[in-house]
C-alpha cells in the first residue's frame, strides 16, 4: 500500500538523520521525512489513519543530538546507536514534534497532509545590535554613581548638624551614613535622636533598622570557641588550641559566614549596643499625631464655615506644618498650595511661596522650585523695592536666591547657579531648613571657578564685599579661588583633591563633584595656554602635577571640543597655537556687520512705506471667533507686529 511505503520512507529518512550524528540539518531532514510519509497516505486513507502514520514516523525517527556516552549502569532496554545515545521515544516526540496551528484531530489531520517546510538554522548566531564604544562616564549628563564610599572624611558631625534644622538635618545625616562607613553609626545615632523630636514614626523605624544593621556589620569577627587538647607541644597542661578549619565548599562557607553574622555575642566596635526600638514612643507618637490631625482638620472645617479667608489660610498652613512634621511631604505640599486662594496680601503670597519651595526642595521637584521663586519675585513687595530694601525684604530675597541656586545646580546650569549664590546677602542668610552659609560659599565658589573667566572671577567673586564674608567661613575654598586666580594651578588642584571627600558627603553637591572638577581643570588648562604661541608640554605637565601622556590626552580632548585653538607636536611634545590672521578676520566681521545694517535699513524703509500708504492685510477669522477683523483692528495688529 502507499501508506506503508510512505511510512517506511519517512522512517528510513529519519533514521538516516539520527545515525549521521549531530548535523545542523538533522531537524530539517526529519521534517521532510515525516512530511513524505504524510503525503504518501493522503490519497488512500482517512484523516485519522494519516495522522497516526505521521505520528509513528516521527516516533521512529528520534532527534539526533550529541550526548554523553551511554552509562553502563543504564537499563538494558534503553536505545543506543553507535558511541552516543539518543533520547527516548517519548522525549523525542515531545520535543521534536511541530506544533499544530489548529486544535483537535481534524486540524491535526489536515495539517499532516500539508508538506512541512524545510527549516533553515542560522549557524552564525543572531545579529547583535550595534554598540558604541563610549565610556558612559565621559558624558556629563549621565547620572553619577550613587554607590561610592568615602573612607577619609574630615567632618565634624556635631558642628555640621548644628547648621541645619528640621527634616534637612535628618536627611543630610542619613546621606552621610549611607556613603561614609566610619561615620555611619555616629550619624545614625544623631539622626535617631533628632527624629524623636518630630512625629515622623516611619523615619524613626527606618533609621533604627539602619543603625542595627550598621552596628552588626561593624562588630569584630567572632573567633570560634577553643577546644581543650590536654597537653601542648611544650608539655604544659590546660592549654587551648583553636579548632581545625571547616571543610571547604560553598555551602560550608556560606553557613559559617551566616553564623558569624548572626552571633548573639557580637559586640559593636564602639562598645555600646544600639538603643532598643522604643515601641511605647512609637505608639504614643502615632496617637498624638492622629489627634492633632483630627483637631486641625476640624478647625479648618469650622473656618471654612465662617468664610474668613485669613483663618482658612492659617488653617491650611498649620495642616501643612503638621504633615511636614509627620514626614508626609505630598499632603504638606497640597495644603501649602491650597492656601494660595486665601492670600489677601503680598506678604501672604510670599509666605505661601516659601513654604511650597521648601517642600519642593525636599521632594527635589526643581521645576516647582523655580516656578514659585519667579512668582515670589514678581510680587509688588519684592519687585517694586529695587533701590532700597529693608531687612525683611532682603532676607526673603536671599532665601529665594539660595533656593533658585539649588535648583540651577541640580539642573547642571552652573553659571546660573553661581550668579544666584553670589546675590545672597551674608547678613540675612538664615535658611537652616535648606542650607547653611557655608554651603553658599562652597556651592558659589566651585560653580564660579568652573564657569567664570578671569575678569568675571575678579569682579564678581574676589572683589565682592558680600561674598567675601561667605568665603571667610570656608578658608579652603577662599584659598583655592585665590590660587586659581594667581595661576598657581598645581597647588589649587591639590587643595581641591584634599577637600573632595567632604564634598562627596554633601547630598546636593555630590552628584556634580566630578563634573565641576573636570570643568575647573579644563579652564585652568585653557587659561595657562592662552597667552602663549607655543608651550612645552613637559613644563606644562609639571605645572599641573601630571604626566606628559595624560596631559596630551586632555589637550587633545580640548582641541576636539574647540576649547583650545592649537595643534600638538607629539614628537617634540610642544603645543602650538594656530596662527590666525587678525586682519582678514576683522574684514570678515566688518562685511557681516555691513550686510546686517543693510537688511535692517531695508526693513525699516518697507515698514514706513506700508504705514504711510495704509496697507492693511485682512486675515481669516480664527476658529471660535465671531466676524472678521475690521480694518482698524487689522491696522493696529499690523503696526504692532511690524
UniProtKB/TrEMBL annotation:
Q: Which domain of life is it from?
A: Eukaryota
Q: According to its UniProt record, where is this protein located?
A: Cytoplasm; Nucleus
Q: Where is the PCI domain?
A: 420-582
Q: Which segments show compositional bias classed as Low complexity? A: 21-31, 41-64
Where do Polar residues bias regions lie? Answer: 627-642
Basic residues biased stretches: 1-10, 82-98
Q: Which UniProt keywords apply?
A: Cytoplasm, Nucleus, Signalosome
**InterPro entries membership:** CSN1_C, PCI_dom, Rpn7/CSN1, Rpn7_N, WH_DNA-bd_sf
Does the record carry Nucleus as a key word?
yes
Its family? Belongs to the CSN1 family.
Q: What does this protein do?
A: Essential component of the COP9 signalosome complex (CSN), a complex involved in various cellular and developmental processes. The CSN complex is an essential regulator of the ubiquitin (Ubl) conjugation pathway by mediating the deneddylation of the cullin subunits of SCF-type E3 ligase complexes, leading to decrease the Ubl ligase activity of SCF-type complexes such as SCF, CSA or DDB2. The complex is also involved in phosphorylation of p53/TP53, c-jun/JUN, IkappaBalpha/NFKBIA, ITPK1 and IRF8/ICSBP, possibly via its association with CK2 and PKD kinases.
Quote the protein name from its UniProt record: COP9 signalosome complex subunit 1
Q: According to the entry, what is the taxonomic lineage of the organism?
A: Eukaryota, Metazoa, Chordata, Craniata, Vertebrata
Amino acid at each position: 500500500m502507499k501508506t506503508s511505503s510512505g511510512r517506511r520512507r519517512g522512517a528510513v529518512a529519519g533514521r538516516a538523520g539520527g545515525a549521521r550524528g549531530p548535523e545542523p540539518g538533522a531537524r530539517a531532514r526529519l521534517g521532510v521525512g515525516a512530511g513524505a510519509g504524510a503525503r504518501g497516505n493522503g490519497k488512500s486513507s482517512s484523516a485519522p489513519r494519516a495522522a497516526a502514520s505521521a505520528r509513528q514516523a516521527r516516533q521512529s525517527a528520534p532527534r539526533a543530538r550529541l550526548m554523553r556516552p551511554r552509562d553502563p549502569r543504564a537499563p538494558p532496554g534503553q536505545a543506543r546507536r553507535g558511541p552516543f545515545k539518543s533520547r527516548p521515544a517519548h522525549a523525542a516526540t515531545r520535543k521534536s514534534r511541530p506544533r499544530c496551528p489548529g486544535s483537535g484531530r481534524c486540524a491535526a489531520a489536515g495539517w499532516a497532509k500539508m508538506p512541512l517546510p524545510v527549516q533553515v538554522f542560522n549557524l552564525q548566531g543572531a545579529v547583535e545590535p550595534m554598540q558604541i564604544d563610549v565610556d558612559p562616564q565621559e558624558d556629563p549628563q549621565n547620572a553619577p554613581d550613587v554607590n561610592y564610599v568615602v573612607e577619609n572624611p574630615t567632618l565634624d558631625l556635631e558642628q555640621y548638624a548644628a547648621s541645619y534644622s528640621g527634616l534637612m538635618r535628618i536627611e543630610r545625616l542619613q546621606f552621610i551614613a549611607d556613603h561614609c562607613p566610619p561615620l555611619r553609626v555616629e550619624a545614625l545615632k544623631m539622626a535617631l535622636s533628632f527624629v524623636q523630636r518630630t512625629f515622623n514614626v516611619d523615619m524613626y523605624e527606618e533609621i533604627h533598622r539602619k543603625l542595627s544593621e550598621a552596628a552588626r556589620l561593624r562588630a569584630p569577627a567572632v573567633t570560634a570557641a577553643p577546644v581543650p587538647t590536654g597537653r601542648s607541644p611544650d608539655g604544659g597542661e590546660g592549654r587551648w588550641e583553636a579548632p581545625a578549619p571547616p571543610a571547604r565548599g560553598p555551602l560550608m562557607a556560606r553557613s559559617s559566614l551566616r553564623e558569624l553574622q548572626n552571633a548573639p555575642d557580637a559586640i559593636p566596635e564602639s562598645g555600646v549596643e544600639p538603643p532598643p526600638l522604643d515601641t511605647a514612643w512609637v505608639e504614643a507618637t502615632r496617637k498624638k499625631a492622629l489627634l492633632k490631625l483630627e483637631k486641625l482638620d476640624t478647625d479648618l472645617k469650622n473656618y471654612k464655615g465662617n468664610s474668613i479667608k485669613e483663618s482658612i489660610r492659617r488653617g491650611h498652613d498649620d495642616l501643612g506644618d503638621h504633615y511636614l512634621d509627620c514626614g508626609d511631604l505630598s499632603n504638606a505640599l497640597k495644603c501649602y498650595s491650597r492656601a494660595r486662594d486665601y492670600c489677601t496680601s503680598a506678604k501672604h503670597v510670599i509666605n505661601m511661596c516659601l513654604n511650597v519651595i521648601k517642600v519642593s526642595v525636599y521632594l527635589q521637584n526643581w521645576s516647582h522650585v523655580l516656578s514659585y521663586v519667579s512668582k515670589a519675585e514678581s510680587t509688588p513687595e519684592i519687585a517694586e523695592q529695587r533701590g532700597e530694601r529693608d531687612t525683611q525684604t532682603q532676607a526673603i530675597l536671599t532665601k529665594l536666591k539660595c533656593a533658585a541656586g539649588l535648583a540651577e545646580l541640580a539642573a547642571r546650569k552652573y553659571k546660573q547657579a553661581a550668579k544666584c549664590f553670589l546675590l545672597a546677602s551674608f547678613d540675612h542668610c538664615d535658611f537652616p531648613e535648606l542650607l547653611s552659609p557655608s554651603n553658599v560659599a562652597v556651592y558659589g565658589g566651585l560653580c564660579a571657578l568652573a564657569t567664570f573667566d578671569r575678569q568675571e572671577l575678579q569682579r564678581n567673586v574676589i572683589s565682592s564685599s558680600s561674598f567675601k564674608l561667605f568665603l571667610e567661613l570656608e578658608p579652603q575654598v577662599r584659598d583655592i579661588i585665590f590660587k586659581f586666580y594667581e595661576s598657581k594651578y598645581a597647588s589649587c588642584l591639590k587643595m581641591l583633591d584634599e577637600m573632595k571627600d567632604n564634598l562627596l558627603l554633601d547630598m546636593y553637591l555630590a552628584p556634580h563633584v566630578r563634573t565641576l572638577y573636570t570643568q575647573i581643570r579644563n579652564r585652568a588648562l585653557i587659561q595657562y595656554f592662552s597667552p602663549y604661541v607655543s608651550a612645552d608640554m613637559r613644563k606644562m605637565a609639571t605645572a599641573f602635577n601630571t604626566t606628559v601622556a595624560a596631559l596630551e590626552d586632555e589637550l587633545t580632548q580640548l582641541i576636539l571640543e574647540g576649547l583650545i585653538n592649537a595643534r600638538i607636536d607629539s614628537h617634540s611634545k610642544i603645543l602650538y597655537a594656530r596662527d590666525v590672521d587678525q586682519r582678514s578676520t576683522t574684514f570678515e566681521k566688518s562685511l557681516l556687520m555691513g550686510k546686517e545694517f543693510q537688511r535692517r535699513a531695508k526693513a525699516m524703509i518697507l515698514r514706513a512705506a506700508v504705514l504711510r500708504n495704509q496697507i492693511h492685510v485682512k486675515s481669516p477669522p480664527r476658529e471660535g471667533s465671531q466676524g472678521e477683523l475690521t480694518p482698524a483692528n487689522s491696522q493696529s495688529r499690523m503696526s504692532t507686529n511690524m
